[in-house]
Amino acid sequence: MSKLQPGDAAPDFTLTDADDNEVSLESFRGKRVILYFYPAAMTPGCTKQACDFRDNLGALTEQGFVVLGVSKDKPAKLRQFRERDALTFPLLSDTGLDVHKAYGAYGEKTNYGKTVMGVIRSTFVIDPDGKVEKALYNVKATGHVARLAKELGIS
């Protein structure tokens, strides 16, 4: 599975959100998008990461960013996750993992010393023209949003 690099065209997609609405990456052209892939809704690390994005959404939005979270969870579970943790940005369902694979966010990874196939926690910053600005793989859930904001010059 090849990983995306800065300058690559971000693979376009249309996915279903927590409310069963279709959301396309193309509809965000002209804006900078933070697209992040996480393994599973309502797990401790994924909750920490989602709440960090929620808590920093105001600063990100002020700088013109849109945040989209993607997991393999079904829309009903995404709704539960959103409601339980008051998440205020779109959560998208990729149950077939096609978008994960297109971004290199699914494949071999090491988990507790074993090599397994699974979701690779990854974040992409996509520029207004649909090009990858940043491609970050194997990110840690804790502290990731703060580090990303610092890299993007957002305080």
TrEMBL record:
Record CDD domains: PRX_BCP
InterPro entries attached to this UniProt entry: AhpC/TSA, Peroxiredoxin_AhpC-typ, Peroxiredoxin_BCP/PrxQ, Thioredoxin-like_sf, Thioredoxin_domain
Protein's UniProt name: thioredoxin-dependent peroxiredoxin
Pfam family, one: AhpC-TSA
SUPFAM superfamilies, sorted: Thioredoxin-like (SSF52833)
Class of the enzyme per the UniProt entry, highest EC level: oxidoreductase
Record key words, sorted: Antioxidant, Disulfide bond, Oxidoreductase, Peroxidase, Redox-active center
Every Thioredoxin domain range: 4-155
Organism: Microbispora siamensis
Recorded catalytic activity of this chain's protein: a hydroperoxide + [thioredoxin]-dithiol = an alcohol + [thioredoxin]-disulfide + H2O
Stretches that traverse the bilayer: none
